[in-house]
Structures are given as C-alpha cells and as structure tokens.
C-alpha cells in the first residue's frame, strides 16, 4: 500500500505484474510479426545501446579463452624446444663420435701403409692406457706373452719410432716411449750421416741430442733416423727432427733440442715389430 497525491494506492500483486508483462510481450511479438517499423527501430536502438554492454560482458570469457589457448601453445612450444635441444645434443655427440672414428680410420690406414719394413713383421696393438709424467713415459698395450710379445721389442707408428717393450704380462705389455728419461735411441742424420743418440726428456713434445761437439755439422731441420745399432729398432726409421742448436763458449758440447716424429700425443693403435728371423714371431692383426 502506498500514497500518490494524497490518495491511497494499492501496489499491484505479483500475478498482476506477470499478466501485464505477458500481455506486453505478446503485443510486441504481434507488432514485430507484422513488420512494424517503429518496433524494429526501437529494437535496433536497444540492441545498439546494449552492444557495448554485451561486449563488456563477453570480454572476460574471451580473455580466459585466449589465455587458455596461449598456455596450450606455450606448453607445446616448450615441449618442442626441449625435443629439439635433445636432438641437437644427440647430433653433437654423433658428430664428435664420427670425427673421432674418421681420425682413427686415417690413423689405422697410415699405420697399415707404413707397416712394410724390410726384415720385420708388423702387428697391430691397441693402446689401453697412457702413463705420462716427468719421470715415466709409458704405454700399455692389449698384446702380451700369449701374442708372442717380448721385452726389447720395437714399437712404431706411421710417423716414427714410439719406443720399446719393457714389461710383458700374459695379455698386456708395457712400452717405454722414446721421450722417457731412461730412453736412448741410436740415430744417424739423414743429411750427412752424423751419428748420435736421442734421449728422452720426460716431455712428450721434446727430446735431446747431447754429446755433440761444437764442431759437429748439425742444424735446425735435420732429421735423425734410427741407425739400427743395438738391434732393437729397424734402421732408417724416423726418430726426431732438430728444432734448435745453441753453443756455449765455456762448454765443449752443443745444446741440441729436437721433437719426436712419432705422434706420441695421439695413439689408439701402434705397431709391434717382430724380426722375421725370430723363432715364434707372428703377425697379429687384432686390437
């Protein structure tokens, strides 16, 4: 109950409201069905006025939809990136392995091409371990007593003399490199036949040629090969190249530095040499 201009006015009931709105709805539908221009104009105005509100209402749902789509896309991109990174790592590993295999093939090919030494039979041996220090320069090979390896046996690679066997076990052997401080290789100069001895220094990259008088004909670049004296190494095989020659007026001998010609810093395989006249010698080609 309310008042209007002093009159008591009774509020309509809910049923009356329902009937009123129903009648209004029916009237609007009838007018729209008869293509009433005014109704269409009113409806268009209402739709245009309500369009921003409709867009604003739909905006949160559109944002949520876009966010979900972006999250799914981001997840797929992360997975694809992880897969590509893993593949790149695998390819890098394979490339490194392939490069190592190519290097080993070249090394083995050079070894086999250089294995024809008159009076000797050559056998391939795999390097199991490298012991390098200032007082000991040794290799461990996978050939031993069962393969007829013997103490004092010469070991070479495709470029020069590596050393000699100093210890033999049943299936392995130990090689003293020419750079070992206890090693001495009788040599001769290719240029003029000068005889000398190449001694190890404890460094894989350097040897020395002592006891040459100041009048000796020796110069940087001279190549010394094994002379064959002592019967351990085959004659004429490369040993060292002279890098520096200095003299001291107060000393009777020259200071001669040289580098080994064998590739001592990279060995996967080497060649063992057996004199052909030796009883029980054989050519082993596994490693």
TrEMBL record:
GO terms for biological process: regulation of cell shape. The keyword Coiled coil applies. It holds the Pfam family MreC. Residues 128-274 form the Rod shape-determining protein MreC beta-barrel core domain. Residues 74-101 form a coiled coil. Involved in formation and maintenance of cell shape. Belongs to the MreC family. This is Cell shape-determining protein MreC. The lineage of its organism: Bacteria, Pseudomonadati, Pseudomonadota, Gammaproteobacteria, Acidiferrobacterales.
């Amino acid at each position: 109950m309310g008042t209007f201009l002093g009159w008591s006015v009774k509020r309509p009931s809910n049923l009356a409201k329902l009937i009123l709105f129903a009648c209004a709805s029916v009237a609007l539908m009838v007018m729209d069905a008869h293509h009433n221009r005014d109704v269409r104009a009113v409806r268009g105005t209402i739709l245009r006025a309500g369009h921003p509100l409709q867009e604003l209402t739909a905006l949160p749902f559109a944002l949520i939809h876009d966010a979900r789509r972006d999250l799914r896309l981001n997840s797929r991109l992360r997975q694809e990136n992880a897969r590509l990174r893993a593949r790149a790592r695998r390819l890098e590993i394979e490339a490194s392995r392939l490069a190592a295999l190519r290097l080993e093939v070249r090394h083995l090919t050079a070894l086999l091409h250089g294995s024809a030494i008159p009076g000797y039979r050559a056998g391939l041996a795999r390097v199991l371990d490298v012991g390098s220090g200032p007082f000991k320069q040794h290799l461990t090979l996978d050939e031993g007593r069962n393969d007829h390896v013997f103490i004092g046996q010469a070991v070479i690679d495709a470029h020069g003399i590596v050393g000699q066997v100093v210890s033999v076990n049943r299936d392995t052997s130990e090689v003293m490199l020419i750079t070992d401080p206890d090693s001495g290789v009788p040599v001769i100069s290719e240029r003029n036949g000068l005889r000398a001895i190449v001694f190890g220094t404890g460094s894989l990259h350097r040897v020395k040629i002592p006891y040459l008088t100041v009048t000796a004909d020796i110069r940087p670049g001279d190549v010394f090969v094994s002379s064959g004296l002592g019967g351990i190494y085959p004659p004429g095989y490369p040993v060292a190249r002279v890098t520096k020659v200095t003299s001291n007026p107060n000393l009777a001998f020259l200071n001669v530095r040289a580098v080994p010609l064998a590739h001592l810093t990279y060995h996967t395989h080497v060649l063992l040499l057996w004199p052909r006249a030796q009883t029980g010698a054989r050519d082993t080609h596994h490693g």
